[in-house]
Write a structure and sequence with these properties.
With 387 residues, the protein is mainly alpha-helical. The chain folds into two domains: 227 residues, Rhomboid-like fold (Up-down Bundle); 90 residues, Serine Threonine Protein Phosphatase 5, Tetratricopeptide repeat. Helix content is 63%, strand content 7%. The protein has 16 helices and five strands. The protein has a three-stranded antiparallel β-sheet with strand order 1-4-5. A two-stranded antiparallel ribbon has the order 2-3. The N and C termini lie far apart (90 Å).
């Protein structure tokens, strides 16, 4: 009678490079140490009641108690390595394997510090492999392993789901522990590895490091998988993305305000204007103060960028209507001389309180008004466009 698992239908996104490498390393270690006798096998064993030896936590997972122990572990390392490395990639897989394997051996050695039995220690990759089994169960419970079987003269294959297989093996270890208690040494070893693998599988899934395409254990448990998978609510998705974008824009605008102020304080008004324009449509944009507006307007005038200054002047008037007569007069002049907007110029001047102006400015206002009136009489076509 022979039952041999050899393949899986789980999606494989990475070649099992590390899995094959681990199998080669395990076989080579066994040949060199246990068979060849080139190294002391006791140094590779996890010793009981002999203190804590961190090096043994690593070495012991590459040593086995015999050919059958080695072959059995390597078959299942291949099987679960296909699934886990296939989704995780070689270096993340290798890290998980070593951490789980060493962690299990470390826990076992600490737990056996006061052991008084006849067993000198432990070897084997079973704990790490059971950890991989737990990860595969979380990531691909509905996928299947294919077994080759030979029963008498009957030969064939059959499939078993990863969840079913993991449940049977883990369940068997629990039964052994319930029956034999502390004497079920290997069952404790296997179950500890399994329990160490579970958080790895869950965290890597929840962090999005592994994409199971909706076939993970949580999706299966909720019924939201495969043909039962719910299509996303596109309206809700759009609203969610919009809300996230608004929050990002808000944070960006808050951080932009100090940068804008720094440009002005350093005298780099050109950079401040470029930055203001860039941020204009981001969460309400930057909010300049009164002096900031005047600094930008004056710089634009110094560069004779009259048309560019008009929107800034209009904004200043809208924000500070009672302190804007001088700006209204200057904008009216620009409307007449640069923008061909005589009607707009007259509207601006109509809001100026001439009684509060010096005589010289009154003359300027009258001159601009006269020019604007003349332009209208000459039939200047004025587009009704906001500044």
């Amino acid at each position: 009678m022979l039952f041999l698992p050899y393949s899986t239908d789980a999606p494989i996104y990475h070649w099992p490079v590390a899995t094959v490498g681990l199998i080669v390393a395990n076989v080579a270690a066994y040949l060199v140490v246990a068979v060849g006798g080139y190294l002391n096998p006791e140094e590779w064993m996890l010793s009981f009641a002999d203190g804590i030896h961190v090096d043994q936590w690593l070495l012991s997972i590459f040593m086995h108690a015999g050919w059958m122990h080695l072959i059995g572990n390597m078959i299942f390392l291949w099987l679960f390595g296909l699934v886990v490395e296939g989704k995780l990639g070689w270096w993340r897989f290798l890290c998980c394997y070593l951490v789980i394997g060493m962690g299990q051996m470390g826990i076992e050695q600490i737990a056996m510090l006061h052991y008084t039995g006849d067993v000198p220690g432990a070897v084997g990759a079973s704990g790490a492999i059971y950890g991989l089994m737990a990860m595969a169960m979380i990531w691909a419970p509905m996928n299947e392993f294919t077994y080759f079987y030979l029963v008498g003269f009957r030969v064939g294959t059959y499939d078993i789901s990863i969840a079913m297989m993991a449940g049977l093996y883990a369940g068997w270890e629990v039964i052994m522990i319930c029956i034999y208690g502390s004497d079920a040494g290997s069952s404790w070893l296997h179950l500890t590895g399994f329990l160490l693998g579970l958080p790895f599988g869950i965290v890597l899934l929840k962090k999005g490091i592994v994409d199971c395409e909706g076939w993970d254990a949580f999706s299966v448990w909720s019924g939201n998988y495969g043909g039962f998978r719910e299509e996303p609510d596109h309206v809700a998705e759009v609203k969610k993305r919009d809300a996230e974008q608004k929050e990002k824009d808000k944070q960006l605008a808050q951080s932009a305000q100090p940068q804008f102020r720094q440009y002005l304080q350093s005298g780099n008004v050109a950079a401040a204007i470029r930055f203001y324009e860039k941020m204009k449509n981001v969460a309400g944009g930057i909010t300049p103060e009164r002096g900031d507006w005047l600094a930008m307007i004056q710089w634009l005038h110094s560069q004779q960028r009259w048309a560019d200054s008009a929107p800034y002047m209009a904004k200043f008037i809208a924000i500070y209507p009672k302190q804007a007569d001088a700006v209204r007069i200057n904008l009216a002049r620009i409307c007449v001389l640069e923008l061909q907007r005589p009607g707009k110029a007259l509207d601006l001047l109509a809001e100026v309180d001439l009684t509060k102006l010096p005589e010289q400015q009154v003359k300027v206002v009258k001159s601009i008004r006269s020019k604007a009136t003349q332009m209208q009489e000459e039939g200047v076509v004025e587009l009704d466009v906001d500044l």
